[in-house]
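Record type: monomer structure entry
Structure origin: computed from sequence
Chain ID: A
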Amino acid sequence: MLMTGGVTINRRSIGARYEETAAAYLESCGYDILARNYRNKYGELDIIAKKEELLVYAEVKYRSNTNCGDPLEAVDRRKQIQICKVAACHYATYAAKSYQPCRFDVIGVYHDETIRHIENAFEFYW
């Protein structure tokens, strides 16, 4: 919980709202949403989607303003490594037998609900 100006803000509910915006955007672009907020012992993936035979692990970032930088900048190397660990576990369990290609995307949602989708935003790290 975060207090600003006497108002309590629940960051999880804000995040869920913009993850929903990102999921709707992906669906409008022809992606099938397979999972949201997928968790395992390594952490969480915001969205797992599929477009044709491609499996997409998408991280969603929101910023209400640019004082703290662009939302896309928040997915630094440390975060990329964590996403890769979660994705590797998911992939080994659900997709490895089919040799399904995959990629890592980052979706930035801005205060005016503008969306920037970076496909293949980073390589696999372990």
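Annotation 1: The chain has a mean pLDDT of 87.
Annotation 2: The chain is about 30% helix and 40% strand.
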